[in-house]
Design goal:
Helix content: under 10%
Largest sheet: 5 strands, antiparallel
Radius of gyration: 23 Å
InterPro entries: Plexin (IPR031148), Semap_dom (IPR001627), Semap_dom_sf (IPR036352), WD40/YVTN_repeat-like_dom_sf (IPR015943)
Bound molecules: 2-acetamido-2-deoxy-beta-D-glucopyranose
Keywords: Glycoprotein, Signal
CATH topology of the domain at 33-214: Methylamine Dehydrogenase, Chain H
Pfam families: Sema (PF01403)
Number of strands: 32
Strand content: 35-45%
CATH class of the domain at 33-214: Mainly Beta
CATH architecture of the domain at 33-214: 7 Propeller
GO molecular function, one term: semaphorin receptor activity
Number of helices: 1
Protein name: Sema domain-containing protein
Low-confidence stretches: 10-25, 332-351, 437-499
Shape: globular
Length: about 500
Amino acid sequence: MALLLWALTLLGLVGVGAGLRPRKLESFRSETELNHLVVDEASGVVYLGAVNALYQLSADLQLEQQAATGPAPDNKKCTPPIEASQCHEATLTNNVNQLLLLDPPQKRLVECGSLFKGICALRSLRNISTRLFYEDGSGEKSFVASNDESVATVGLVSSTGPGGERVLFVGKGNGPHDNGIIVSTRLLDRAEGREAFEAYTDHATYKAGYLSTNTQQFVAAFEDGPYVFFVFNQQDKHPARNRTLLARMCRQDPYYYSYLEMDLQCQDPSDAQAPAFGVCLAASVATTGAGRVLYAVFSRDGRSSGGPGSGLCLFPLEEVHAKMELCVPCGWGPRPHKSFPCGSEHLPYPLGSRDGLTATAVLQRGGLNLTAVTVTVENGHTIAFLGTSDGRILKVYLAPDGTSSEYGSIPVEINKRIKQDLVLSGDLASLYAMTQDKASLAPPRTAPQGRAPVTLSHDANETLPLHLYVKSYGKNIDSKLQGGAGAGWGAPAWDAGSH
Ligand SMILES: *[C@@H]1O[C@H](CO)[C@@H](O)[C@H](O)[C@H]1NC(C)=O
Ligand SMILES: *[C@@H]1O[C@H](CO)[C@@H](O)[C@H](O)[C@H]1NC(C)=O
Ligand SMILES: *[C@@H]1O[C@H](CO)[C@@H](O)[C@H](O)[C@H]1NC(C)=O
Ligand SMILES: *[C@@H]1O[C@H](CO)[C@@H](O)[C@H](O)[C@H]1NC(C)=O
């Protein structure tokens, strides 16, 4: 199966003077399924994590370097290093990329796969083939990602505080052969007798109260000032319910005293009686005029009463902090347990805030899922790019009054889900999206009518808000995408009439 990565050039977003030249962006095809995508803002280099491979690409998706990460003899039950004499059931196993993160200050990349109990490596940003650290003989303490391909792992690289160590914060669900840890803080450099990827302290791991497997699906990790956040879905058994939780902890917290969880709910605006959307599929954070906001897309499955559908909900981090701040401020040093003012029966932790945040979706769509979200603010206008399960990227203007309007839709690949890693380049000129299978190319939509949120015309010949340049392997379907709006292309049927 051909697996393609698409890069979209968003001229409509580029500041005056930049990006006037139509840039020719290529697509990149991986032999194996693509799992993760990150872009180095400084260099523009794109890194891809795929099954059994890592790729380093130029900003226009030309292959610069690649490294094989699998397959290798393994068995989920065996402790690496795998030796045939110790692990009789080892079979050639694919390595699914579970985590791909940049550490620009240290010019390195963190990469963890499903192979060998989810151990990780550090690689050079300059040359992804150069492995800076890899150790498969450290045992349990080095198991970071889930070794179950279907269990998501999320993370972020940061420091414990100003001048503090570089660390990796990891959130993951629990596969049948995982170690039960769902959140952990990992060293990235050797310190005090600890190797890279070991827990930052003996206490810097958190096991879920629910030890049964496949309970949590992690969706996103992000930071905000002194805090680290995780978004995950959790299937509770008693009482039976599906929840989306937001966990927060202090970056500097060797004891995990600050770990807190809170429910997030996204309500369907069209039907107040309908149950809230049940599952969060993607989330990201952006800084708007009104402060930092968490944007999360939720779905409900077809069996629920409202039928299949999805929505975008906004959670201002100020509101999140207001709920949580009462409980635990971030600070230094051990915090006396008795000062928990939130009064939960689960003390000392996790300190569940039972009344979480409920938002009403600012945009909802029936019959499809929103599968990716990235948000940018340009000239004070908040623009969300939303990937869909039917292979499009919706361009949505989010007005300060809480309303939204979809003013464009980029067909990427019909009926192929846009994967979660939807990334804008540092200069906001390109949007990188991953899908599967081969695409047929449809032209982008014409400029939005009426309340166009962004300045769309940068030069006299530029009438489209957005250009899409795609070339598939060996077959250039790039052709003429510039030109007058609607110059003989005709919007695809499913793209017309959206608002
Ligand atoms: C990157 O590293 C690989 C393996 O060490 C080497 O073969 C290759 O030449 C390097 N590439 C560059 C551009 O330095
Ligand atoms: C929760 O989600 C799972 C998986 O989608 C589903 O099988 C289960 O029925 C849901 N449970 C509830 C209580 O909605
Ligand atoms: C949308 O997401 C829900 C929840 O993950 C899933 O049950 C459903 O099959 C998805 N629908 C589509 C069209 O992708
Ligand atoms: C616009 O198109 C005209 C005719 O093709 C060309 O002469 C002119 O240089 C173009 N302007 C810009 C800014 O590209």
